[in-house]
Design brief:
Elements lengths: L2 H6 L2 E4 L1 H5 L9 H14 L3 E5 L5 H13 L4 E7 L2 H11 L5 E8 L2 H5 L5 H18 L3 E6 L6 H14 L3 E6 L6 H14 L7 E6 L6 H10 L4 E4 L13 H10 L15 H12 L20 H9 L19 E3 L5 H10 L6 H17 L3 E2 H12 L7 E9 L6 E9 L2 E9 L2 H12 L5 E9 L8 E9 L2 E9 L2 H21 L11
Parallel strand pairs: 1-2, 1-8, 2-3, 3-4, 4-5, 5-6, 6-7, 7-8
Antiparallel strand pairs: 9-10, 11-12, 12-13, 14-15, 15-16
Helix pairs in contact: 3-4, 3-12, 4-5, 5-7, 7-8, 9-10, 15-16, 17-18
This protein binds 3-methyl-2-oxobutanoic acid and zinc ion.
Length: 519
Amino acid sequence: MTDTAKQDRVLIFDTTLRDGEQSPGATMTHDEKLEIAAMLDEMGVDIIEAGFPIASEGDFAAVSDIAKQTQNAVICGLARAKTLDIDRCWEAVKHARRPRIHTFIGTSPLHRAIPNLSKDEMAEVIHDTVTHARNLCDNVQWSPMDATRTEFDYLCRVIEIAIKAGATTINIPDTVGYTAPKESAALIRRLIETIPGADEVVFATHCHNDLGMATANALAAVDAGARQIECTINGLGERAGNTALEEVVMALKVRNDIMPYRTGIDTTKIMNISRRVAAVSGFPVQYNKAIVGKNAFAHESGIHQDGMLKNAQTFEIMRPEDVGLSETSLVMGKHSGRAALRSKLENLGYTLGDNQLKDVFTRFKELADRKKEVYDDDLIALMRDSSSDEGHGRIQVKFLRVICGTEKPQSADLTLSIDGVDHQVTRTGDGPVDATFNAVKALFPHEARLQLYQVHAVTEGTDAQATVSVRMEENGKIVTGQSSDTDTVVASAKAYVNALNRLLVRREKTRPDDARATV
Ligand code: KIV
Ligand code: ZN
């Protein structure tokens, strides 16, 4: 590769499975993490941050299994500036063809106050921990957390220490989403100009989206010399999330005239992974989200449609195919066969084994019986439900009938199978969903608090399926459940039960109290 080509190449570091999964309620199962990691690898992500191995047995197992399965990408694990964390991280990533340890410590005045370390004491910790990591692994990333609110001189000092101790990538996190594009660029430029040895390492940008500037800040940092962008699919992440992978990648592609940098991403894989991450995280993509929102390529107003028919470029700066979006079409009906379903699902990015296809085909037929026209989005919802623990969890919805209308109270007659035994109850409530949820609670008493109840229509029309998302919290553990059905109340009951099943799994998992609190 020529020097110029090297300079133009921007590495994509995906942290959907670490920073993204840390978002309250976005917890993914082990298999879901492995599946997302495989999709990231296939789409050409350079580095996958697979988790935080010290945080729990589950995180450790996910990072080490992802390390074992990944063909191309570097597999990175996160570790606090503690020997124990770094050792645990290495134990998990060492199976990878290309492992990386990412260690960090908060360097801003506010973050230094937490462990109550003086500047000198913290500098020593950084030296020792990066040296320790480098003795284990020759690919070490170091992050001064809250870098954008750290005194510039101190930031230079600690970065120089980390480089001398062997860090190969220096990541500059805007942990609280506070910076702005001009400042983001100026900081990276000044750091690279000031720090001895800066040209020997890769500078990375890690932006949070609290002020809606994460993508702009990341691109500004690249213009100033950063060559690694840390990002997540759909911008998933704590609070307002992280830089969205699809946004930076497509911005660099579409505006390559003014941002002449390349990534290794196959952009046609964007839509499928976006849908999959939305499904497994339980965080639906907002309709008008850039690149992957449902409306991102929709042209409804008359004037737009007229322009589009004459020349697509009138209102379109990129083609739907560039992000892997096939034209939404009426796909199938009740006469469609198994082979047609398999081929349609393959187009949508799902490869099914024979048994899974059999299961999905049965559900497809049930849906096609209730709904004349089955669209791509219906199939995606169906796939999400089949791969969730619905049907496999300890609790299952067996029967539901509600009485609703203008007469109060509304009531729900519900049968749940709990650990293989059927239980029946009738409960009333303020509306059919409330009555149903009261019935679930009567059959399976619990203290979990309902934090969110959300309904989305999957497609248009009065026979459209509704996707219901439910988020619940119990002792600080947050889980989400989702389900789709042409009957909104049935979807609600199944989403609630799906969340409860996930809560039961979470109850069994242990996690050190402070492991996540500091990130
Ligand atoms: O936002 C942040 O500072 C982080 C670090 C752990 C890199 O996620
Ligand atoms: Zn972060």
